[in-house]
Design brief:
This protein has a 7-stranded mixed beta sheet. The chain is globular. The protein is built from 10 helices and 22 strands. The protein is about 25% helix and about 30% strand. The chain folds into 3 domains: about 1-70, Nucleic acid-binding proteins (OB fold (Dihydrolipoamide Acetyltransferase, E2P), Beta Barrel), CATH 2.40.50; about 95-125 and about 310-475, 3-Layer(aba) Sandwich (Rossmann fold); about 135-285, Beta Barrel (OB fold (Dihydrolipoamide Acetyltransferase, E2P)), CATH 2.40.50. With about 475 residues, the chain is an alpha+beta fold. The N and C termini lie far apart (about 55 Å).
Length: about 475
């Protein structure tokens, strides 16, 4: 039943049926699919439609008639406003169920794969404080909440240090406590905000491109390293020195401090100089080798180097990759989209040689550093776009791969890479993906020569809709 037909209807007493994309849940009214945030399957709600698309609607729950038994009380005070951890109100066991279902549905619907062997999803050992990297934004356009007073607030009370509000480029939620990164992450953020307010330092205005303080990045490792990057809009040397010295004095556990001057209109800092202010110039992470008793693999991580954001679950991801590959020890393996070479260096002790391909030059430099750090002489890294490098000439020069490991970005593999794989035809392809939809699309293109043997979902990011998935494809001879 509907009321208020114009301009947007309200659908009454609708049961939420499924968990969907972008952290939203799914309802169906007749033939209409409606995506709704902050509800869980089993809730019965009235839905106010707020946006109509060609193939679906978007809405919000305006009244609850009954609550699902899958619900739990969110643990974070910012839930419902902050754009992260959108599944906090869903029991963790049910989160795992819907992540696994997401993988199975994508393989069946997009990948056209029948009789799928999907292994039970590997849960994260940590449901909170599992991230090793967070980035916060300074803003003078704080998002006002229901507890804020009505009317004009003093300018300094509009300052925030936190996360962007979804879909609003100029609004930042001031974060009191975040459960994503272990201490002293929260304490550092609160200290820097208090210092800025006390000393009258200006927060960034994204509308006018003014303000001194822009971003804060905090990174840590399981070995105890703690790295802080401060991003300023201008090089006010005295203010920078005073702020960073106070930070170091307050938090002796910090092992590295860098800062960046970013006068640009965007927040990207990879193309800007990083100034080393204090401590070590990099962090060190260690992962246990694949076999019991093998030496740890050591990774040197620079301030802007990529590393899997959930360090402990990354170990399980790489172990799964090795288990699926079933190395005999004499293989040549290509690692496509190798990034900083974490997978390539992890498998190096187990095979004859590994060839890594990556388009970002600085990532390849990191990969080479980490190979040297561990004494690996059988790793070979090349800079370039995979779809351009993976040619017959390249293979003649570097060896025919028995196994290819691919870990592309969320957009999946370039179509030319898939065509190259169908020409190279290694015995096995181990496909690691953070996006089961694009992974399933690529698998459907590979099935003319390959059979999907099994897949292993992993939860890298509890309380979000994201799921990692590893699949094994074997050549049809």
């Amino acid at each position: 039943m509907r009321k208020n037909q114009r301009p947007f209807p309200v659908f009454e007493k609708v049961e939420i049926l499924d968990a969907g994309s972008e952290g939203n849940a799914v309802a169906r009214v007749g033939e209409i699919v409606v995506f709704v945030p902050f509800v869980v399957p089993g809730d019965v709600v009235d839905i106010q439609v707020i946006r109509k698309k060609r193939s679906f609607y978007e809405g919000k729950a305006i009244r609850f008639h009954s609550f699902s038994d899958k619900r739990v009380e969110p643990f974070c005070e910012h839930f419902g406003t902050c754009g992260g951890c959108k599944w906090q109100h869903l029991r963790y066991e049910d989160q795992l169920y819907y992540k696994q279902k997401q993988v199975e549905d994508n393989l069946a619907r997009i990948g056209k794969v029948e009789k799928i062997q999907v292994l039970p999803i590997l849960r994260s050992s940590e449901e909170q404080y599992y991230r090793n990297k967070l980035e916060f934004t300074f803003s003078n356009h704080r998002w006002l909440t229901s507890v804020d007073p009505v009317g004009q607030l003093p300018e300094n009370e509009m300052n925030a240090l936190g996360f962007h509000i979804p879909r609003l480029f100029d609004k930042v939620l001031d974060i009191k406590n975040c459960y994503l990164q272990p201490d002293p992450s929260n304490a550092i953020r609160l200290f820097l905000k208090a210092f800025a307010l006390k000393h009258g330092l200006s927060f960034y205005d994204v509308r006018k491109w003014t303000g001194f303080l822009r971003n804060l990045i905090i990174r840590n490792t399981t070995t105890g390293d703690l790295l802080v990057i401060m991003v300023f809009r201008e090089n006010a040397e005295e203010d920078i020195r005073d702020m960073l010295n106070e930070l170091i004095n307050a938090f002796p556990q910090i092992t590295s401090v860098f800062y960046v001057i970013n006068p640009k209109k965007n927040d990207v800092i990879n193309d800007l100089p990083l100034y080393h202010f204090y401590g070590k110039k990099f962090m060190t992470e260690r992962m246990p080798g694949f076999k019991h008793g093998d030496p740890d693999i050591e990774f040197q991580i620079g301030p802007v180097s990529f590393f899997q954001t959930n360090s402990r679950q990354a170990v399980r991801l790489y172990k799964t990759t090795v288990e699926f590959a079933s190395f005999k020890g004499n293989e040549t393996v290509y690692d496509l989209y190798t990034g900083t070479g974490t997978i390539a260096n992890y498998i190096a002790p187990l095979i004859n040689q590994v060839v890594g391909i990556e388009s970002i030059p600085s990532a390849i430099e990191d990969a080479k550093v980490n190979a040297n750090l561990n004494g690996f002489t059988n790793t070979h890294f090349f800079t370039g776009e995979t779809e351009k490098l993976l040619t017959s000439e390249f293979i003649r020069e570097n060896g025919q791969p028995e196994i290819i490991i691919t870990d592309p970005p969320r957009s999946g593999m370039h179509e030319k890479v898939i065509r190259a794989l169908l020409t190279v035809i290694p015995e096995k392809i181990v496909y690691v993906s953070c996006n089961p939809a694009t992974q399933a699309r690529d698998i459907s293109l590979l099935t003319e020569r390959y059979t999907l043997i099994k897949c292993q979902p992993l939860d890298m990011f509890p309380h979000t809709q994201h799921v990692e998935n590893v699949v094994l494809l074997e050549r049809m001879d």
